[in-house]
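This week, think about what follows.
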Amino acid sequence: MPGLFTTQRECIYINESRNIDVAAIVLSLNDVTCGKLDEIDATGYGIPVFIATENQERVPAEYLPRISGVFENCESRREFMVAS
């Protein structure tokens, strides 16, 4: 997902973070199914988590109450995703 968002903050891969001084976390659906959302919830930090989907992926309903939103990475939404 590098290059998907513009931000003034440093972007760090989830496997390289200790979730300290984090404004928000963006996960892939694969990250979620591999347990990353559970790991983030276990910290108790209350960090907003978003899921970025690709190729018409669907986020299972069971995850929706635990996340702040979903970004769909597709050409029709590209301008919205990278707007500054």
About this structure: The chain has one domain: 14-81. The mean pLDDT is 82. The chain has three helices and three strands. The first helix runs from residue 29 to 33.
